[in-house]
Design brief:
It is built from seven helices and 22 strands. The protein has 414 residues and is of the alpha/beta class. The mean pLDDT is 94.
Length: 414
């Protein structure tokens, strides 16, 4: 319950999680669904020693970038999947640049990070080709709401592609032990996959629309029920296979834009030996005909199997599957470029130190959150690398999430 009222709170910054930030005395105040530059009246909800969170009550001075949200579920009482549908899209792009700069200054200890303006990666709506729907205790499917711990049934979402919306609307599922479903759209609108997450006996089902169905029990491997246990989708200029046990790109078209941006940053000369970690060859296999050799290291078995299929008959690609650090330490030949796409916790000191022993001239670090780069920035500097440029790319319009591609070069090769 609110414990106090901020009568005229001036908002000046944007938080990593998408809230606007104001200051009341020595305390920072985070206000969701507001925009920096606005003056608002807000009710205090959560209080700590140095910060509080407040609910927006009404506008005193609205931003010129404030617009009417498209989605009827948008807002504090609705869906928390989008944070910024009330913000004009061009302003969203500039706010994402501010988030990247602040993360690298504050946590990455880069005093003047070379962050470029955020680039869009396609349409600001109808871009999602994948969604997870959770099942609540009453058997209703809906979008999981992380902050409130509930499931919100929705008929449609403006971020879903038409094919994804059609697939969601066509499903009628009544299976004991079902926790949720993962919906994926592949190469064309008639190529789709439904992954059923649950427990208990293997389900029996009838399918009257063209799609693949996979059962993913709480423990054990995925089991195909109908069709193939993978989807093929084009990203950039190349077709990629994604198995059911892998993370599927929510925005394949945007991922293709990111691949092109990284390609331009690396500017291959044709004689490079390229090492890619964690991303299953999504980047390097797109350019295998432009470099002398590609080495992939992938800890996920399904992603490694997909990489073998995706590599096709390329004779300059070597794929290793297993623990990242162990495999890096086993490599002896130097590499020219490392493409690093670590998990949310970052690559870490040991991995980056081991990579530096392979003497790459350049490291291209990509992540779906600038906080990942901020965590590893100190380790990259300690390994002898300097941050040259950071390119934010917007693969998640209407949300505060931003992807980054950051180029580091070895100090010894300046």
């Amino acid at each position: 319950m609110p414990t106090g009222i901020y009568e005229a709170l001036q908002l000046t910054k944007i938080a990593h999680s998408g809230e606007a930030i104001g200051q009341a005395g020595n305390r920072l105040v985070f206000v969701p669904y507001a925009i920096p530059g606005e003056t608002v009246r807000a009710a205090q909800e959560t209080t700590r020693a140095k910060w509080s969170r407040a609910q927006l009550l009404n506008m005193i001075t609205p931003s010129a970038d404030r617009i009417e949200p498209t989605c009827p579920y948008f807002g504090p009482a609705g869906c928390d999947g989008c944070q910024w549908q009330h913000i004009r899209y061009q302003r969203q792009l500039s706010l994402k640049q501010e988030i990247v700069v602040e993360q690298l200054r504050r946590f990455g200890r880069e005093p003047n990070p070379p962050v470029q303006p955020t680039l869009p990666a396609g349409e600001p709506f109808a871009y999602r080709q994948q969604i997870y729907l959770a099942m609540d205790k009453n058997g209703n499917l809906g979008l999981p709401q992380k902050q409130r711990g509930i499931t919100l049934p929705v008929e449609d979402c403006p971020l879903w592609s038409a094919a994804l919306a059609d697939l969601s609307a066509a499903l009628t599922i009544d299976l004991p032990g079902l926790h949720g479903i993962d919906l994926r759209i592949g190469e064309d609108d008639n190529d789709a996959m439904v992954i059923l997450h649950g427990q208990g006996a293997l389900p029996e089902l009838t399918v009257d629309i063209p799609l693949s169905v996979v059962w993913k029990p709480d423990s054990g491997p995925a089991i195909p029920l109908v069709g193939n246990p993978f989807l093929i989708t084009t990203i950039g200029q190349r077709a990629f296979r994604f198995s059911a046990e892998r993370v599927y790109p929510a925005n394949p078209a945007g991922q293709g834009v990111l691949i092109d941006i990284i390609h331009d940053l690396l500017a291959f000369e044709g004689n490079e030996r390229l090492l890619e970690l964690y991303s299953g060859g999504l980047f390097s296999l797109s350019w295998s005909n432009e470099v002398s050799e590609v080495v992939l290291v992938e800890p996920n078995a399904a992603a490694a199997e997909d990489a073998i299929w995706n590599a096709g008959d390329a004779d300059n690609v070597t794929i290793y599957e297993g623990p990242i650090l162990d495999i890096i330490l086993s490599l002896t030949d130097p590499v020219d470029i490392v493409l690093l796409s670590p998990p949310r916790q970052g690559a870490g000191r040991e991995v980056i130190s081991a990579l530096s022993q392979l003497c790459p001239h350049r490291i291209l670090f990509t992540a779906d959150d600038p906080a990942v780069l901020a965590r590893d920035a100190a380790f990259l500097r300690q390994a002898g690398y300097r941050l040259v440029t950071v390119q934010p790319v917007d693969l998640r319009p209407q949300t505060a999430q931003v992807h980054i591609a950051a180029l580091w070069t070895a100090e010894s090769h300046q």
